[in-house]
Amino acid sequence: MIRVLLADDQPLIRSGFRALLDLEDDIEVVAEAADGGECLALAGKHLPDVALVDIRMPVMDGIEATRRMAADPSLAGVHVVMLTNYGMDEYVFHALRAGAAGFLVKDVLPEDFLHAVRVAARGEALLAPAITRRLIDRYVSQPPPSRAGGALEELTGREREAVALAARGLSNDEIADRMVISPATAKTHLNRAMTKLHARDRAQLVILAYESGLVTPRNR
After folding, report:
1. 69: region left, alpha or beta (phi > 0 left; psi from -120 to 50 alpha)
2. Any idea which architecture 2-126 has in CATH?
């Protein structure tokens, strides 16, 4: 059973998402929060598999709540998915750097919403290739922050290749095709890279690839 925490200051939004989730046999909404502080407290109490967190909330915004959850070892199993509206792209990378596994726009189709919850619960990044490319397009138009790439020396050549391809927006199947390996092996390379680089998930790995210089705009 996938345990979900809903955090949004708009009751109508929460009730709409809950109505969808309650229809699924494999998903259970364990708590609802109306602000970031309540979200943080309820995450500690219920230890959900997935926390759907609105970016803009009173008391504490979703990004700060996500940052605190990511920093708490007891909440390592909580996969945070940020809820956002169109026109809020400026918050997306802040959310990913804070520790979010990905993000959803609030007008997502019901079937895509449910799929996203299940993907996040499995510990996979909620960044479809098309979305990843959109984020990359926005991110690489700005000078990346300086960050030492020494940690990349811990990776094998194949792990570096898999990370670079993921950072360019390729799915596991596409990475497998490009590297002539199985999708399971591609996933293993990425999981090992995440462990070595202390990346919480694939989304963090993508950002690290750009910030470390492994992938740059000219070699996309």
Report:
1. alpha
2. 3-Layer(aba) Sandwich (3.40)
The domain over range 147-212 is classified in CATH as 3.40.50.720: no
Q: Fold match between 2-126 and 147-212?
A: no
Bridge partners of 28?
3
pLDDT digit string, tens, across residues 47-73: 999 999 998 898 999 999 999 998 899
pTM above 0.85, yes or no: no
| CA triple 203-204-206, angle to 5 deg | 65
Name residues whose C-beta falls within 8 Å of residue 136's C-beta, 6 or more positions apart in sequence.
167, 168, 169, 206, 210, 220
Contacts of 201 (CB under 8 A, 6+ apart): 79, 101, 123, 124, 125, 194
